[in-house]
């Protein structure tokens, strides 16, 4: 019998097709992995409440969310890494000065610092999660915020990077960047899970397609980039599979020898 491995899947552009749905071949592949005794997990930049329906559909209870800042193992919170509060205040002040919207996100909900923003609506609309942040400019006070979204044009985040060493800024949309704890990553979040489970690196696998997947794809030798992903992801991975709109997950698992 094959030794138990753990396979981490990014969501957008990877486990999900461009319509934010799960292909039949992907669903069948996930079922086959579980029948073989492997652990199937998610590693995403999304908030937990942005993919609870996916976890339910695929019966997955282990995940890395917020790019490593909120990690859950078998339904129990294993690790959290909230944003530094004084730096978050500085970010808020700078954003107000620059007329840039911010969305504050904890493990349960999200709120925006402005009541209406076309950039928020347009960029978050691409996620197809069926929800938008409501307005609460003080939502970040007195609670743990695991990720923020800063809405600015490409290049405008540089001014924030120069003043906020406690944060990393990773662009995911022409109008928006993820604001993360400096040095945090999916790969580090994955390490919390694999250390707890005692699964060695050679039995860890990762699938991704974008900039926030690079450390994961580089750090886990058995890594697969989607054929529809960024060139940087393909360069970082061991294997390159087909598109997320085709049978990219099933094909990638075959490349990796898991199916």
TrEMBL record:
Pfam families: Hydrolase_3 (PF08282). The keyword Hydrolase applies. Gene3D superfamilies: 3.30.1240.10, HAD superfamily/HAD-like (3.40.50.1000). InterPro entries: Cof, HAD-like_sf, HAD-SF_hydro_IIB, HAD_sf. It comes from the Bacteria. GO terms for molecular function: magnesium ion binding; phosphatase activity. GO terms for cellular component: cytosol. Keywords: Hydrolase. NCBIfam families: Cof-subfamily (TIGR00099), HAD-SF-IIB (TIGR01484). This is Cof-type HAD-IIB family hydrolase. It comes from Saccharibacillus brassicae. The lineage of its organism: Bacteria, Bacillati, Bacillota, Bacilli, Bacillales.
